[in-house]
Each structure stands twice: as structure tokens, then as C-alpha cells.
Amino acid sequence: MRCRSCKSIVKDIFIDLGKAPPSNSYLSKSELNKFEKWFPLRVLVCKNCFLVQTEDFIGADDIFSDNYAYFSSYSSSWLKHSKEYVDNVVERFKLSKNSIFAEIASNDGYLLQYVKELNINCYGVEPTKSTANIAKSKGIDIIEDFFTVRKARELVNEGRKADLIAANNVLAHVPDINNFVKAFDILLKPDGVATFEFPHIYNLVKLNQFDTIYHEHYSYLSLLTVNFIFEKNGLKIFDVEKILTHGGSLRIFAKKKSSIKNPLKNSVLKLFEEEKKVGLNTLKYYENFKHKVNKIKLDALLFLIKAKLSGKKIAAYGAAAKGNTFLNFIGAKPDLISYVVDKNPAKYGKYMPGSCIPIYEIEHLLENKPDYIMILPWNLSDEILSQETNLLKQGVKCFTAIPKLKILN
User: Fold this and answer.
1) Which residues contact 88 (CB under 8 A, 6 or more apart)?
2) Cα(44)–Cα(37) distance, integer angstroms
3) What is the pTM for the complete model shown?
4) What is the predicted pLDDT for the residue at 323?
């Protein structure tokens, strides 16, 4: 295939996770006996620009459909993170009632609600009807569409050029990353700022976070690679921060290349050197990942099988996309994990794609108490443990499988 960044021929394999259905395609009961589409989940690395990327088998329209089931507002820690971000950028870039704040992939209004509270003009661009409707119910202005060069030009013609554009955990989700980035250059005011948050490929490799790989994540990003993409599409990175979300992410700050405001900070140069030092710009860095992933698979299966053979009941917490990647890769079914619980009512009564494990509300843990709970969104382990103290007092053990198998209490 051609690299979606530099168009070089790409054939070096980073990881092959076999086949899986789209990770957010939850099943209704009536769909259990119907044909379920599975696609190869294979990730390659470009030897020219070192963009780590999925091999193309499924389009964005098939993934981000009207019934898309990921809603950002069900994590209290993510809401806290979002409010702190809004407060930070409003103060840092002196945003006011006369400013325009846009968010790309605004989901259910989890972030823009805090901008609206400050009486700052804001709007979101969101392609999925299910999440857009929730945001609209909060009184947030939402444009239901994918963000592209075409859409950016439409917004400019409508007088919607932005002082600040936020794009949290969306840069990895776009198949045409060059078109997407160029759209920011078009929509920004001359001295506007765009911020992007995305999981850092360094942490994915170091901490064995292979479950963050799924079809809707087209790209896995380093600062070096993102800088390469931005430079050729009209943007210049001037600052970067390491943040803890999603197992270790980067927040980058970018401007139009023509802007003389916001000079380059040392943080960018420092991280460039750190990435080069560990080898993120070499193929060798990505070669041994598959061996570590296979060990995690075997350790998890061994634990689950031993627990079942000893008569223990196992449930899972969090019907997250990363959980679906994990469960399908190790081959877990309801015979190993009885059920999954989640906070999102849109998932109740449905089944995990591929594994067909049923999904219930959180209270089901009390009604059908397990001996073990596998926390699938391991990045939210602390939040989940703090919310389930009653179960822990009753002797229920919680564990995660990534970066390695670990009993948490």
C-alpha cells in the first residue's frame, strides 16, 4: 500500500492482530445470528516518514456511522481533563467573548460545554449523529460532517474562521491525514492556534498498548512524524506537552506557518531529540513489538483458563473499543468472560463485537457478583477502583492485562 502521509510504498509490518470486526460496532440480540463483518487488523510502518498506520480495509463512513457508540462524557476523569484544558487555553491565548472556539470531532459536547459556560462563541464539527444529538441537546452549535478541506472552506465562507481549534484524539482517526491537517490551515485565523491531543507511539510500544489499535485508528503518531505532516500542510508546531491521558499522550500546539506569534519553544526541540535517541525514526524500533504482544496474549489466556477451571466467575468492566481489540485478539468468548458492564446506556442489552459477550449496566456486578473483574480500559483503572469500593470490600479482585497481567487490589 501507499503511505497515507508521504505516499511511499509501505510493506514493513509493525503488528498483525489477525481479523476483527470494527471495535465500536456493538451487536443487538437480533444480530447475533447474522453475518458479522471481520476485517484484517494489520499495522505497517513507513520506512520514509515512519508513520505507523493500519492497512486499508474499511472506510471511515462504515466506522463513524449514525449509531456510533462512543460517548466521551461517561468518564469523569476525561471531563476533568477537558475542563482543565479549556481553562488553560482560554487564559493562555487570551480568548474572550469576541473569540471563536471550534472543536473538531466534538463528540457529545464533553469539552465545548465548558467553553459555552464562559460565553465564548463556539461550535463543533462532528460526523456521528448519535453523539451530535447529545451535544445539540446541551445547546451547542454542531455541524454534522467530516472535517475536510471542502468543509473548512465552507466554514470560512460562513464567517467561522477560528481563533482556537481543538482536536482531541481525532488526528489518528482520519484516513486522509494530509487533507485533514490542511483544513486547519484554512480554518485558522492568521494568528490562530490549533491544539491536538493523540496517544504517543512511544508509550504504545514501551507499555505494550496494542489494544489501542483498531480500525478507526488509522495512524499511530510520534512528534517527528506529525511535524513532517504539518510542515507540508501549512502548520508549524510551536509547543508540546506530555499528558497522562490514554496511557500517555502528547498535546501539541500549532499555528499557520505564516504567523510570527507564538515562537518555537524548547519543549519541541527537546522531544525531537528524545524520539531520535530511542529510535522512533528507525525501523529497528518497531521490530520486536509482536513478540511482546504474543506474551501478553498467552499470559491473559492462561490466567482466564486457570480461573475458570477453579470455578471462578469472571466479568469485565468497560465495553471500550480497546477492550474489543483485546478480547478478539486473545479469542475470549462468554465461556471465559461471563459479561461486561459499562456506564453508557446506549450499550445496555447489546453484545461486544466479535466476542459476543453481553453488556449490562454497572449494577449488574452486584446482582451477579464475579470473583474477578478484568478492567478493559486500563487507563481508567484508578477511576474505576475508586467507584467500586463496595465490591472490593466483598473480596472481588480486579486485574488488568496491559502492560502486563496485574492484580490491582
Assistant:
1) none
2) 22
3) 0.90
4) 95
